[in-house]
Fold:
Amino acid sequence: MVPTSSRRPGASSSPLRWLARSSGNWLPPLLGIGGFLLLWQILSSLQLIALPAPSSLFTEERTRNLILYPFYDRGGLDKGLFWQTMASLSRVAQGYTLAALVGIAVGITIGLKPAINRAFDPLFQFLRMVAPLAWVPIALVLFQNNQPAAIFVIFITAIWPILINTAEGVRQIPQDYRNVALVLQMSNRRFFTKVLIPSALPYIFTGLRISIGLAWLAIIAAEIVMPGTLGIGFFIWDAYQQNYVGEIVLGVIWIGAIGLILDRLMAWLQTRISPGQ
Amino acid sequence: MTTSLVDVRAIDKSFDLRGGGTYLALKGIDLEIHKGEFISLIGHSGCGKSTLLNMIAGLDLPTEGVVLLEGEAVKRPGPDKMVVFQNYSLLPWLTVRENIGLAIDEVMGDLPRAERNAIVQEHIEMVGLGPAADRLPLQLSGGMRQRVAIARALAIRPKLLLLDEPFGALDALTRGNLQEKLMQICNEHELTAVMVTHDVDEAVLLSDRIVMLTNGPGSGIGGILEVDIPRPRARLEVVHHPSYYSLRSEIIYFLNRQKRVKQWRARPHQTVARHGLEKVNLDLGFLPLAASAPLAVAEAHGLFAKHGLDEVQLIREPTWRGIVDGLVDGTLDASLMPAGMPTWMTAGGHGGTPLPIVTSLTLSRNGNGITLGRRLAEQGVRTVDDYRAYLKSHEREPHTMGIVHQASMHNLLLRYWLAANGIDPDKDVHLQALPPAQMLADLKDGSIDGYCVGAPWLDRATRDGHGIAVAGDLAIWPGHPGKVLGVREDWAITYPNTHIALTKALLEACQYCADPAHWAELSELLSDRRYLGIKPELIRFSEASADVERGGPESEAAVPHHLFFGDGLNRPSRTEHLWMMTQMARWGDIPLPRNWVEILERVCQVGVFSTAARELGLEALSYQRQGIALFDGQPFDADDPISYLNAQVIKRDFSIAEIPLAPPRRG
Structure:
């Protein structure tokens, strides 16, 4: 990441100078990515791998159109990448929100009550180990419908880190804070809002950040096996069926970029909401 | 300070252990805390002082007993007994103002918002944190955070302020400033406070009373010290108060004693019986004195082992008090002790229940003397008559003389000598018990006029030019008993053969010590770090004649005339012990026992001595020593000690009482 730092007083105003000075920050990643693309280009040109070269994303008409016109909409499933992504993201938003609500609530409960924790922990640990793809058939059987099934898969994948981290955060509330609350005879409600939530917040956010990545992984997997749904996952699967290899590559790059943005967004939120911890 | 605010009644606290079973942390704690009082709880780590504080706070409940706050049982924590925790316990996501505000909102939620804000502001100002009021705790130093915690605690106006090592994590400078701040706040608001600390100086500085806790398991209150230093106190000035160092050394003695007991407990303690003896692993107490020579010789020359005592360990104590406590709690099997100590402890002079101590051997005679400081000598005070005149002309100044222990011959001889010369040892001067090794330092800096102590501390002052000797053994009571071997009576009954073997080993050592040919070697031996740890030339056993040439009658009087062995020297003498009892009764240390015949019979184990002497082939020693002759020639009639006491001019109001002793039994 190239820092967009503010200029220090007395620093040169020339952007070129600034770029030159901070070259240690941006040069290595640029060289790394550039080298990777170049190697890919060469290998493709020499026909050593079956993938199209990176340059073909721009030279080939189909992919160039997808890049240049992300907002086109020709009805049905034939829509621009922006709409595909939005469809996927809206599923993620629904499943993830549900996971966050349930995960934090259950996490606080088992964090506060060791007995409940002992009762359910084996179950949670067991369910946590089931891969997202394995949930798909169960989800389809349960809901008989693509849309809720996809949301369920997101939910069941994303909930575990949130739940487990929240519970840990509540358990980790220092005895000192509890003692303060005890000595001041805080009501349960005040303890919850004034001590428990602020204290467990860093843990909760750690869980949320892990989960957003998992949720994004899960939606692609879910869409791939759910034919006829609008979304970036099915877009790739469709491209594969029709042997548009360039589109597959473009889709994969798109997915990675969105995942990265989501993760950074959560990290930024975390620093905003719980500063100094 | 009359009403009791907190009443801790017969509290026990035990914890369940992980592997089953319970650990008894506190046992039988009784403590009353008055309104406006500042109490410190001091003790070693793990002694349960924080647990006790938590129970007063209601954060923890006692297993047995009850804590009363204004007559009501403490069942749960509450703002009326606010705690300042060791690690501050500020909520890191709230600013200074919000942290204090949170407490106010909880406790005084019914006040109008403006009033609450005013209270918060007032307390921020009180601890001097105005400029930092809107900062987060992480942006503050440790000292500032603790000030916030104190402000938060005070803001809610608790009846009782509880502080758990509040300054433990702070640097010395910050700690000092905060201590003064806390003292000032406590004085201004007449707060009642209980503080847990492990810092001796902090406890003395801040407290009205210091509660010392013994080590666990089953910790109890080992003692409570009243701090009589007037308030307001200033940190740099309290050290000049006469009580400061005695309080300080009292606490340090207590803590060291606890450490020693802990070390003792950590060692295995099964009784090892061997060679027909009931116990061969003995812990033998002694003090760094020339009179300890027989113990050192018995160890160095293998005399203990020769008589079957394979595992004797010599334990060096800095003061006689350590010896007394070691015998009381059983960490010592036997000990070198001042001649007066067996009857003194048997009569309960140590302040507990009378503990019968028996002696089978007098280890040394003589070796004591009275020294006056150079400050007095320079003003022409060279004899006791000079000193009496000096006391008259300097009545307003405090006059202190050092002794090693109230039951030691030094005390009895010094008092006898002063009284016989018309000086009241309690009214005209003040006698202070000091560790022997400390006396010279006190004489040097002039905090004592003089002292009566045994070699080698006796003549050090004369040699170094810090004082002059005014009276020695020969001038007071030639051949007076010095140190004896003492054991608990129940110990002696449980291990009778061991007792005889120990007496034999030491009697043989005494014989060795008495030979002038061995004196150079003795000096060398005692200079070892295990015993005295001072230069060999400072430890003398020479006879008077050898030193007269060093100049003047002073040095003749000052030279130690140690007697370790000889006709009638080692056999415990009932007459002498009776004389010592009358002297201790004369000065009010013990009542004169109405059952003195029984006490002498039990204390003086003449039979053990005779058996030991016979088995060593020293029957000739079993000879009754006759009469007691002190310098003033007043006769002592061993059949009528009461008339003797009544005949004394200077004395306290002594009492005569039956000492209730349990019948002799095994330990």
Remarks:
- Chain A has a mean pLDDT of 85.
- The first helix of chain A runs from residue 15 to 21.
- The CA atoms of residues 150 and 222 of chain A lie 6 Å apart.
